[in-house]
């Protein structure tokens, strides 16, 4: 099912939670809603499910006016963050629920329901657990039962709220790969909510980055990683050095660093910020260099350096692959030259009159 | 005795309980437990024992004769019937009110919550008088009711009405905290799976609250059967007609028919003991089910 979300506004009491959300999703896509806690991800999902209604805006699913339908009519699979399994029903009964409550005319025969439930439990690798009760299952198992229950009604759209949120790291990784495989097999339009960018990037065809009730950026994982649309997105992706820079004749200059490898930009002169990731910087041992290594933290395949830039005394983070680090033999206190290889320039946020200050801070340009 | 008075742990068992010395703590506990047992025996066990001792003081045949006396039998029957009407109505009311308060947001919700508690804070006899003033022949609707040939006061209908009033908070009070704690996610999940409102209630909500509902109903029934004050005002206390069991007991007692009074009282006591037993069983189920 293709989904068309237009200009959704939602507030609880006087608190705006979604402030004009637009989003188009193609049939069969796997979409991640990525955002910090409280950014309105769950609310958007609940609106799609018919569990909440927006104050204004439209949702069309395959040209059906979605907001006119109640949740029962939407035939979606919704997996709640805390699973919401029925505690008084066995795993089997939980999964059978959606089929067994159908009106007599459309309800499959008992044997057919049983066959379908067994299929689904096998699909989520819970075949041996049909007679257990939710209280007797681990978090990951409950998660999969909740998914099987949602799939039982053959939904055209699957909505998952933080599907791996409450699980520990190893199970998360396994389930993630497994869900990707499941999506490829079943092919239904799927939206899942997460606050974990690794999860979003690894799983999704496209990632929707949400700020406070607005969509900050929509794109493929590569797009978003390579070309964050705003300082907000760049910061949200984490671990970024924000360096005050000077634009002059298409070149960007950072005090105390060599930016000659950063390409020309089609931007006017003036002040700007250069956002640089730790691995986009090289360190060259140089006795005449003005930057100084403050600290070295080896972490697995990467070696992390804290480097103080001259003049500004700004400390930046640099990551070198272990191999590269070995060649350079740097120790604490060494003088180095800082080579910035790549970065993204954002104009500093202009001072704006009051309310609109929270919008996009400035236009971005990728450099090479 | 003097030792006990001198030992601070005995004089102040609470202080002993937090004290580091295990021996004094234990003796402090012993004093508390003994005191508790003595009080229970004096104020709970003894009266109940006396009821049965008195009831059977002239042998079983006399006891049976007291119970099957027509007026007492009628009182038992009337009590059962009125309670059987009032309790189910309050179950429905309690579930509906708790459902509405826990699962929906609407204006006046806080007011509704406090209104539900009112019967607990009003003396039953005041409630009885209030009903008299509203539905009695001299009351607010008295003339209209008389015109339409409807009599409420001094009939079993009046008894049902005051029972409803007095016992209305029990079920809600048991259900509301539970339903609020459970939230609505299971119901929402059921809705997305296609369940209608009634199916959601019947297959998801009700099973989740069944023990609390039973518990509230047991308390509600016990109170309805035992209610004296309000019923005594609105029933008119007509012998063999509008006397419920508690009223009948008082009547027999005032007639100096001690054996009859205690026999009737013993039936009420048995009901209370059965209630207690059911309550204990449910409490264990709720505790075990988590
Ligand atoms: N039922 C509600 N009533 C009031 N405020 C709510 C309700 N649901 C969500 N909110 C508020 O809306 C904001 C967004 O919530 P949510 O959509 O759950 O965010 P997310 O899932 O991204 O963490 C939060 O500030 C939250 O407190
Ligand atoms: Mg959420």
Automatic annotation (TrEMBL), chain A:
<dbReference type="GO" id="GO:0015419">
    <property type="term" value="F:ABC-type sulfate transporter activity"/>
</dbReference>
<dbReference type="InterPro" id="IPR024765">
    <property type="entry name" value="TOBE-like"/>
</dbReference>
<dbReference type="GO" id="GO:0043190">
    <property type="term" value="C:ATP-binding cassette (ABC) transporter complex"/>
</dbReference>
<keyword id="KW-0547">Nucleotide-binding</keyword>
<dbReference type="GO" id="GO:0016887">
    <property type="term" value="F:ATP hydrolysis activity"/>
</dbReference>
<dbReference type="Pfam" id="PF12857">
    <property type="entry name" value="TOBE_3"/>
</dbReference>
<dbReference type="GO" id="GO:0015697">
    <property type="term" value="P:quaternary ammonium group transport"/>
</dbReference>
<dbReference type="InterPro" id="IPR003593">
    <property type="entry name" value="AAA+_ATPase"/>
</dbReference>
<dbReference type="InterPro" id="IPR003439">
    <property type="entry name" value="ABC_transporter-like_ATP-bd"/>
</dbReference>
<dbReference type="GO" id="GO:0005524">
    <property type="term" value="F:ATP binding"/>
</dbReference>
<keyword id="KW-0472">Membrane</keyword>
<dbReference type="Pfam" id="PF00005">
    <property type="entry name" value="ABC_tran"/>
</dbReference>
<feature type="compositionally biased region" description="Low complexity">
    <location>
        <begin position="355"/>
        <end position="368"/>
    </location>
</feature>
<keyword id="KW-0813">Transport</keyword>
<keyword id="KW-1003">Cell membrane</keyword>
<dbReference type="InterPro" id="IPR005666">
    <property type="entry name" value="Sulph_transpt1"/>
</dbReference>
<protein>
    <submittedName>
        <fullName>Sulfate transport system ATP-binding protein</fullName>
    </submittedName>
</protein>
<keyword id="KW-0067">ATP-binding</keyword>
<dbReference type="InterPro" id="IPR050093">
    <property type="entry name" value="ABC_SmlMolc_Importer"/>
</dbReference>
<comment type="similarity">
    <text>Belongs to the ABC transporter superfamily.</text>
</comment>
<dbReference type="InterPro" id="IPR017871">
    <property type="entry name" value="ABC_transporter-like_CS"/>
</dbReference>
<dbReference type="InterPro" id="IPR008995">
    <property type="entry name" value="Mo/tungstate-bd_C_term_dom"/>
</dbReference>
Automatic annotation (TrEMBL), chain B:
<keyword id="KW-0764">Sulfate transport</keyword>
<feature type="transmembrane region" description="Helical">
    <location>
        <begin position="112"/>
        <end position="133"/>
    </location>
</feature>
<dbReference type="Pfam" id="PF00528">
    <property type="entry name" value="BPD_transp_1"/>
</dbReference>
<keyword id="KW-0812">Transmembrane</keyword>
<keyword id="KW-1133">Transmembrane helix</keyword>
<feature type="transmembrane region" description="Helical">
    <location>
        <begin position="212"/>
        <end position="238"/>
    </location>
</feature>
<dbReference type="InterPro" id="IPR000515">
    <property type="entry name" value="MetI-like"/>
</dbReference>
<feature type="transmembrane region" description="Helical">
    <location>
        <begin position="153"/>
        <end position="172"/>
    </location>
</feature>
<comment type="subunit">
    <text>The complex is composed of two ATP-binding proteins (CysA), two transmembrane proteins (CysT and CysW) and a solute-binding protein (CysP).</text>
</comment>
<protein>
    <submittedName>
        <fullName>Sulfate transport system permease protein</fullName>
    </submittedName>
</protein>
<keyword id="KW-0813">Transport</keyword>
<feature type="transmembrane region" description="Helical">
    <location>
        <begin position="31"/>
        <end position="56"/>
    </location>
</feature>
<dbReference type="GO" id="GO:0015419">
    <property type="term" value="F:ABC-type sulfate transporter activity"/>
</dbReference>
<feature type="transmembrane region" description="Helical">
    <location>
        <begin position="258"/>
        <end position="278"/>
    </location>
</feature>
<dbReference type="InterPro" id="IPR011866">
    <property type="entry name" value="CysW_permease"/>
</dbReference>
<dbReference type="InterPro" id="IPR005667">
    <property type="entry name" value="Sulph_transpt2"/>
</dbReference>
<dbReference type="GO" id="GO:0005886">
    <property type="term" value="C:plasma membrane"/>
</dbReference>
<comment type="function">
    <text>Part of the ABC transporter complex CysAWTP (TC 3.A.1.6.1) involved in sulfate/thiosulfate import. Probably responsible for the translocation of the substrate across the membrane.</text>
</comment>
<feature type="domain" description="ABC transmembrane type-1">
    <location>
        <begin position="76"/>
        <end position="283"/>
    </location>
</feature>
<dbReference type="InterPro" id="IPR035906">
    <property type="entry name" value="MetI-like_sf"/>
</dbReference>
<keyword id="KW-0472">Membrane</keyword>
<feature type="transmembrane region" description="Helical">
    <location>
        <begin position="76"/>
        <end position="100"/>
    </location>
</feature>
């Amino acid at each position: 099912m293709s989904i068309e979300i237009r200009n959704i506004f939602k507030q609880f009491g006087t608190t705006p939670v979604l402030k004009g959300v637009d989003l188009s999703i193609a049939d069969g896509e796997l979409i991640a809603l990525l955002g910090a806690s409280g950014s309105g991800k769950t609310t958007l999902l609940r609106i799609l499910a018919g569990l909440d209604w927006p104050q204004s805006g439209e949702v069309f699913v395959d040209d059906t006016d979605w907001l006119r339908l109640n949740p029962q009519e939407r035939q979606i699979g919704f997996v709640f963050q805390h699973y919401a399994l029925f505690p008084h029903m066995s795993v089997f009964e939980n999964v059978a629920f959606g089929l067994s409550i159908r009106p007599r005319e459309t309800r499959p025969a008992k044997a057919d329901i049983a066959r379908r439930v067994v299929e689904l439990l096998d699909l989520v690798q819970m075949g041996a657990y049909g007679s257990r009760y939710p209280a007797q299952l681990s978090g990951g198992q409950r998660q999969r039962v909740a998914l099987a229950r949602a799939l039982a009604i053959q939904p055209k759209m699957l909505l998952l709220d933080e599907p791996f949120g409450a699980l520990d790291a190893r199970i998360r990784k396994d389930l993630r790969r497994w869900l990707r495989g499941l999506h490829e097999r079943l092919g239904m339009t799927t939206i899942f909510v997460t606050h974990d960018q690794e999860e979003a990037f690894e799983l999704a065809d496209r990632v929707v980055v949400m700020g406070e009730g607005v969509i900050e950026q929509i794109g493929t994982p590569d797009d978003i990683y390579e070309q964050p649309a705003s300082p907000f997105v760049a910061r949200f992706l984490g671990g970024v050095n924000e360096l005050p820079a000077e634009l002059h004749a298409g070149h960007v200059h950072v005090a105390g660093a060599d930016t000659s490898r950063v390409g020309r930009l089609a931007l006017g002169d003036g002040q700007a910020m250069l956002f640089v990731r730790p691995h986009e910087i090289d360190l060259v041992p140089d006795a005449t260099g003005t930057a100084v290594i403050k600290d070295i933290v080896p972490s697995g395949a990467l070696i992390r350096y804290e480097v103080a830039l001259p003049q500004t005394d700004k400390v930046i983070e640099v990551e070198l692959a272990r191999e590269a680090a070995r060649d350079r033999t740097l120790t604490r206190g060494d003088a180095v030259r800082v080579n910035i290889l790549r970065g993204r320039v954002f104009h500093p946020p202009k001072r704006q009159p009051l309310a609109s200050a929270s919008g996009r801070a400035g236009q971005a340009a990728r450099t090479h | 005795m003097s030792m006990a008075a001198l030992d601070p742990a005995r004089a102040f068992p609470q202080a002993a309980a937090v004290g580091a010395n295990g021996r004094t703590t234990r003796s402090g506990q012993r004093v508390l437990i003994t005191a508790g047992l003595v009080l229970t025996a004096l104020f709970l066990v003894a009266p109940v024992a006396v009821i049965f001792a008195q009831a059977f003081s002239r042998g079983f045949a006399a006891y049976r004769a007291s119970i099957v006396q027509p007026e007492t039998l009628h009182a038992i029957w009337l009590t059962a019937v009125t309670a059987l009407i009032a309790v189910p109505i309050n179950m429905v009311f309690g579930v509906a009110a708790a459902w509405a308060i826990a699962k929906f947001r609407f204006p006046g919700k806080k007011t509704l919550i406090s209104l539900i508690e009112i019967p607990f804070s009003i003396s039953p006899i005041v409630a009885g008088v209030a009903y008299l003033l509203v539905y009695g022949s001299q009351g607010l609707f008295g003339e209209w009711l008389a015109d339409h040939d409807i009599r409420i006061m001094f009939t079993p209908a009046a008894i049902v009405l005051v029972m409803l009033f007095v016992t209305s908070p029990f079920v809600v009070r048991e259900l509301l905290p539970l339903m609020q704690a459970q939230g609505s996610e299971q119901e929402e999940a059921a809705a997305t799976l296609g369940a209608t409102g009634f199916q959601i209630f019947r297959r998801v909500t009700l099973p989740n609250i069944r023990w609390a509902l039973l518990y509230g109903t047991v308390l509600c029934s016990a109170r309805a059967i035992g209610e004296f004050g309000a019923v005594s005002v609105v029933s008119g206390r007509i012998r063999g007609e509008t006397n419920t069991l508690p009223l009948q007991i008082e009547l027999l007692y005032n007639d100096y028919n001690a054996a009859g009074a205690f026999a009737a009282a013993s039936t009420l006591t048995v009901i209370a003991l059965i209630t207690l037993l059911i309550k204990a069983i449910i409490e264990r189920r709720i505790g075990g089910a988590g």
